[in-house]
Specification:
Blueprint lengths: L13 E6 L7 H16 L5 E8 L11 E6 L5 H10 L5 E6 L11 H8 L4 E5 L8 H12 L3 E4 L2 H11 L6 E3 L12 H7 L6 E6 L8 H14 L3 E6 L4 H7 L2 H12 L6 E4 L5 H10 L2 E4 L10 H8 L4 E3 L3 H6 L5 E3 L5 H13 L1 H15 L4 H18 L24 H5 L7 E5 L2 E9 H18 L2 H17 L9 E2 L12 H17 L3 H17 L5 H17 L4 H21 L10 E2 L5 H13 L2 H18 L14 E2 L11 H18 L2 H12 L12 E2 L4 E2 L3 E2 L2 E2 L5 H16 L14
Parallel strand pairs: 1-2, 1-4, 2-3, 4-5, 5-6, 6-7, 8-9, 8-11, 9-10, 11-12, 12-13
Antiparallel strand pairs: 14-15, 15-16, 17-18, 19-20, 21-22
Helix pairs in contact: 1-15, 2-3, 6-10, 7-13, 11-14, 17-18, 17-19, 17-27, 18-20, 19-20, 19-21, 21-22, 21-23, 22-23, 22-24, 23-24, 23-25, 25-26, 25-27
């Protein structure tokens, strides 16, 4: 639905706006700043607007007085503190600016904890709404939507997406245009003169620069344009997007400049490499003759720069992303195919050849843009706020929690102890107490699972140490790989190998860690390196042991989330599913629904591998066997509401007695992981509650009532023994703790490989 201007709001209203804020450099910061400042202008006397600013660095920014509170994005504890601050600040309503990438946790899930704790109504503006989202994005955005009283989108297409893909009721969604400034005073030639563009025909693209802007296609179009109109200049305005600059430097910009030189148009392509304040931006806009958005992402549902061009009456040439289709459908611009420099050239030349058409197009854009000026847009927000407040329920809006333990109650993942056990070669195998035991050497198994832990940690916290440790563990795995693709498992401290070839489980764990690196790695070089090791190993392995098969299957599943058409990984996942079902059918009987005749360790691996195979293939038998085995495991290990794991001093054979000690972290983590995956597949809160109970085994909810995790050293005890905790704290135990913690915190899994689209 679309709000119109109602009678002016007369009562005072206090608003908290949450989002990025200037001087942070990004489009969302500019938008949040405009929203807050314009709300302050249109609100009745006695009202107040303040900002809760999202920070991507601990020191924050030099904010103006309107910013009252800062939230460090990757600190989960900062979110409930922000909610407390807002609740105690006399606020009537919260206006949240939601964009993927600005909040912490997988797909920004931390913000949901803040929303749960708010006792004020929430109106959320969604800046990205993707069709066919991956499971993490869908769940994250659906939860934000459920915790909001109303949603604002800037494109009607978003209403369809939210309804179809996220299950949001259409009546909860409101369309309010992206705000635009009033045109600056002065003629076009005066503004051209200001920027040294007098006598030139100006084409303009504005925004923080990155490869998704598609500027290279406009550069490729310039020779044919310049051939007919030598005075044309293409201005690329804006600094490189800060995260892109941090990751890649100025690679994209330099590549564009080099290409312009190669094409002989370097004098006709001008780069202004700086973050441009609003006053300068509107002057550049006023100076341009044609505005160009050659963007590559056709799912883009809002573009502030396109809105600005419309509001300032500029004719537009654009690729047909959703927002452009919506705004340029009434003769206000020209749509051209994506990645087509010839079409860009043709459209620009057509407009340059017909000044009357060009000016008429700009005039129609200006008329449409009058509905988008900030004064009107802020008024529409204010009307919506008043409607929400009038209809607000007495009880606060609360969505059901996934688990009784709130995210803020969980420890933050800390890599200090794991880093202490890691030297230049890799992670050492054992410790005496908490002192690294160099005589124990190194194992592929430890380093592979350590790789999995630090990759997950980097995804969640962006801790730079995680990336450095990942490089170390990858280097170790490559060194441990033989020429035939298989891995040694043991390497002594003097770097000599302690075996001819590792066990099946060594091979499986290596594939698990490498697969996760391939799936979640953010640096192309590391992903490529891990992929090469993985591919060589998968070509060589021959596995029959259920745990090894399961570990390799889990690694293959992760691998396929990035490379869905990979036939070798896909074939192995098929083999693993069939193999595990066959093991279950051979060993199970009434009262013993299991894959083997004995319960050993890491028992959650087998049902987990089958659940992931089910997600990839939708083979119903995989899910059926997985859930049957999981139920047997839960009934065996958690009969009275506390997990009491099978111990390694005798295990638990069919028909025999069950050993209670030593209980191992690898078993607890396998349970946490499979229970979370069961929740993802089935949606039953029971599985999430059981996952929480399994995780709390680490925190003292266990057979001896003592926490294995030491909050002072960030290490984990090796086992629960009959007399209490093992005093040693090895790599394996601490890695298993980290894997369990990170899994319970995300509580969501990687994007599933759909049966229809996995390239098979």
């Amino acid at each position: 639905m679309e709000p119109g201007r109602n009678d002016p709001v007369e009562n005072s209203m206090n608003i908290a706006v949450i989002g990025n804020y200037v001087p942070r450099q990004c489009g969302l910061a500019t938008f949040t700043t405009d929203v807050a400042q314009w709300l302050e202008r249109v609100l009745p006397a006695g009202s107040e607007v303040f900002v809760v600013a999202m920070n991507d660095r601990e020191e924050g920014y030099n904010y103006p007085p309107m910013v009252h509170f800062g939230v460090l994005a990757n600190n989960p504890r900062a979110y409930p503190r922000a909610a407390d601050f807002i609740n105690l600040s006399g606020v009537d309503l919260v206006c949240l600016q939601h964009e993927f990438g600005i909040f912490g946790g997988p797909r920004g899930i931390y913000v949901a904890d803040m929303l749960r704790d708010l006792k004020k109504p929430v109106v959320t503006t969604l800046h990205t709404v993707l069709p066919e989202p991956d499971e993490q994005r869908r769940r994250a955005l659906a939860e934000v939507a459920e915790l909001s009283d109303a949603l604002v989108v800037m494109s009607r297409k978003c209403i369809d997406f939210l309804d179809e893909y996220y299950g949001v009721p259409r009546e909860k969604i409101h369309v309010i245009h992206h705000g635009v400034p009033e045109p600056p005073s002065g003629t076009r030639e005066e503004h051209k003169a200001r920027w040294g563009l007098s006598g030139r025909t100006v084409l303009l693209t504005f925004g923080l620069l990155h490869s998704g802007k598609g500027v290279e296609y406009m550069v490729e179009a310039m020779p044919s344009i310049v051939e007919r109109y030598p005075d044309v200049v293409y201005v690329v305005l804006g600094a490189t997007h800060p995260p892109v600059k941090k990751r890649e430097g100025e690679k994209y910009r330099y590549g564009l400049k080099a290409r312009a030189r190669e094409l002989g148009v370097e004098d006709n392509v001008v780069f202004y490499d700086r973050f441009v304040p609003l006053e300068e931006l509107t002057s550049f806009m006023a100076a341009c003759d044609i505005y160009v958005t050659p963007y590559l992402d056709m799912n883009q549902v809002v573009s502030g720069t396109l809105a600005y061009a419309m509001g300032l009456g500029r004719p537009v040439v654009s690729t047909p992303y959703y927002y452009a289709q919506e705004l340029l459908g009434e003769g206000t611009g020209v749509l051209v195919p994506v990645r087509d420099s010839g079409a860009l050239s043709e459209a620009v030349l057509d407009l340059l050849a017909d000044p009357v058409k060009r000016e008429a197009m700009g005039g129609r854009a200006y008329e449409l843009g009058r509905n988008m000026v900030w004064d009107r847009v802020a008024g529409e927000y204010l009307d919506l706020f008043a409607t929400v407040l009038a209809g607000r329920r007495v009880a606060p809006l609360v969505a059901p929690k996934r688990m009784a333990m709130a995210l803020r109650d969980l420890p933050r993942p800390k890599l200090d102890y794991l880093a202490r056990l890691t030297d230049a070669a890799g992670a050492l195998h054992r410790s005496h107490f908490d002192i690294p035991d160099r005589a124990s050497g190194y194992t592929t198994e430890d380093n592979a699972l350590a790789l999995a832990a630090v990759v997950l940690c980097h995804m969640q916290t962006e801790d730079p140490r995680a990336l450095e440790l990942a490089r170390t563990y990858l280097g170790m795995l490559r060194y441990m790989q033989r020429e035939d693709g298989l891995f040694h498992n043991v390497m002594h401290y003097d770097r000599s190998f302690g075996d001819e070839v590792g066990s099946q489980e060594c091979q499986g764990k290596a594939l698990l860690g490498l697969g996760l690196m391939v799936a979640l790695g953010q640096e192309e070089g590391l992903v490529s390196f891990a992929k090469g090791i993985f591919d060589d190993a998968l070509e060589s392995i021959s596995l029959t042991a259920p745990r090894a098969v399961s570990q390799a299957a889990i690694g293959s599943y992760h691998y396929l989330t990035r490379f869905a058409g990979a036939s070798l990984a896909s074939s192995f996942l098929d083999f693993a599913g069939a193999s595990l079902v066959a093991s279950f059918d051979a060993a199970s009987a009434p009262g013993w629904e299991w894959f083997e005749d004995t319960l050993y360790y890491a028992n959650g691996l087998m049902p987990r591998a089958l659940l992931l195979a089910y997600r990839a293939t939708r083979e119903g038998r995989y899910k059926e066997v997985a859930l049957a085995g999981l139920e047997f495991l839960v009934q065996t290990c958690c009969p009275k509401g506390t997990f009491d794991l099978v111990g390694d001093q005798g295990w638990y054979a069919r028909g025999g007695g069950r050993a209670r000690f030593n209980q191992l972290p690898i078993e607890a983590t396998s349970l946490v992981e499979v229970l979370v995956d069961a929740y993802v597949v089935e949606g039953s809160e029971r599985y999430m509650e059981l996952a929480r109970l399994a995780f709390e085994w680490y925190l003292g909810r266990n057979a001896v009532g003592e926490p294995l995790y030491d909050f002072a050293s960030f290490s984990c005890a090796d086992s629960i023994m009959v007399h209490g905790l093992d005093e040693n704290r090895s790599t394996e135990a601490t890695v298993q703790w980290l894997l369990a913690l990170l899994r319970i915190q995300t509580a969501l899994h990687l994007e599933p490989v759909s049966a229809a689209g996995n390239g098979r």
